[in-house]
Amino acid sequence: MSGSATYLYAVTRPVDGSSVSQLRGIGGAPLRVLEVGELGCVVSTVSLDEFGEEPLQRNLADLGWLARVAREHDAVVQGLAEVTTAVPLRLGAVYVDDGSAAVRVARLRAAARATLDVLDGREEWGVKMYAVQPETEPQTVPADRPSSGLEYLRRRRGELARKTIDARALAEDADAVFEELRSVSVLARRHRPQDPALSGVKRPMLLNAAFLVDRDGRPEFHRAVERLAQARPEGAVVRTGPWPPYSFATLDDA
């Protein structure tokens, strides 16, 4: 399949094209800024050999291709965040040409403007919480062999009950961390905890949250995270960011 299409990365406030000239899109393509009324949309040209309907469906199943395109997409969004307020689009927002992309953005104008108003002067921070046992936790002394099957079952029920109580306490602690950080944020969102294979951390993840924070309020937010981290075992509470506001900005209808 030959030909090209327009790939849409983000919707922004009006921005001079020269301010994004140093950024490169997917495959190293230069970026363009299309004016849509009081909005701008940042696009580049992509090949239909990769982004046509059928090739795109195949490529989305290719993890290597998907990882590369996701990195290049995210690099554009991160670069835009340093220049202006931007509403990132989901991966794979492809249109026939610039005109079609502009028409779609025009239809989303009200939602885009409202989202930009929320995002102005703010940034996203992530906080993860893991189940970490204190280093000073006493070692468990092996119990004597149970004297009977009934004794074994009694002990087993006790162990399961303790594990249930521990799991409940950890979940309640994660809820408390989330609520305290939400109180010093503009918006907060909980995501599904990541599998250890994705997080790179072997310990179970208890909390995977995103917080939209005023840039002026960043010190207060950081102090709150540090206070929560110091009250728990080392490595239990981890802050990441700042990130483009994916958790609060994606125009799902695009």
Question: Could you give a short description of this structure?
Answer:
This protein is α+β, with helices and mostly antiparallel strands. The protein is built from nine helices and nine strands.
Relevant terms:
254 residues; alpha+beta; Alpha-Beta Plaits; 2 domains; five-stranded antiparallel beta sheet; four-stranded antiparallel beta sheet; 9 strands; globular
Written overview of the protein:
This protein is an alpha+beta fold and 254 residues long. The chain has two domains: 116 residues; 128 residues, Alpha-Beta Plaits (2-Layer Sandwich), CATH 3.30.70. It is built from nine helices and nine strands. Strands 1, 2, 3, 4 and 5 form a five-stranded antiparallel beta sheet that branches. The model has no long low-confidence stretch (mean pLDDT 84).
- Report the average pLDDT across residues: 84
N/C terminus separation: 25 Å
- Compressed to H and E, one letter per element, the order equals EEEHHHEEHHEHEHEHEH
CATH class of the largest domain: Alpha Beta
CATH T-level topology of the largest domain: Alpha-Beta Plaits
Number of domains: 2
Named CATH architecture of the largest domain: 2-Layer Sandwich
Outline type: globular
The percent range for strand residues is 15-25%
Q: Give unreliable regions as ranges.
A: none
Would you tell me the structural class of the helices and strands?
Answer: alpha+beta
Number of separate helices: 9
Summarize the amount of helix as a percent range: 40-55%
- Could you describe the largest sheet, including whether it forms a barrel? 5 strands, antiparallel
Q: How many runs of DSSP E, i.e. beta strands?
A: 9
Rg, rounded, reads: 24 Å
